[in-house]
Amino acid sequence: MAAFIIEGGHPLSGTITPQGAKNEALQVICASLLTSEKVTIGNIPDIRDVNNLIELLRDVGVKVSRSGDTITFQADELRLDYLESDEFVRKCAQLRGSVLMIGPLLARMGKAVITKPGGDKIGRRRLDTHFLGFQKLGAKLNHIEGRDVYEIAANNLRGTYMLLDEASVTGTANIIMAAVLATGTTTIYNAACEPYVQQLCRLLCRMGAQIEGIGSNLLTIHGVSQLHGATHRVLPDMIEVGSFIGMAAMCGKGVRIKDVSRENLGIIPDAFRRLGVTIQEEGDDLFIPEQKHYVVESFIDGTIMTLADAPWPGLTPDLLSVLIVVATQARGSVLIHQKMFESRLFFVDKLIDMGAQIILCDPHRAVVVGHDRQVQLRGGRMSSPDIRAGIALLIAAMSAHGNSRIDNIEQIDRGYENIENRLNALGAKITRV
Question: Which terminus in the chain has less CB density within 10 A, N or C?
Answer without folding.
Answer: N
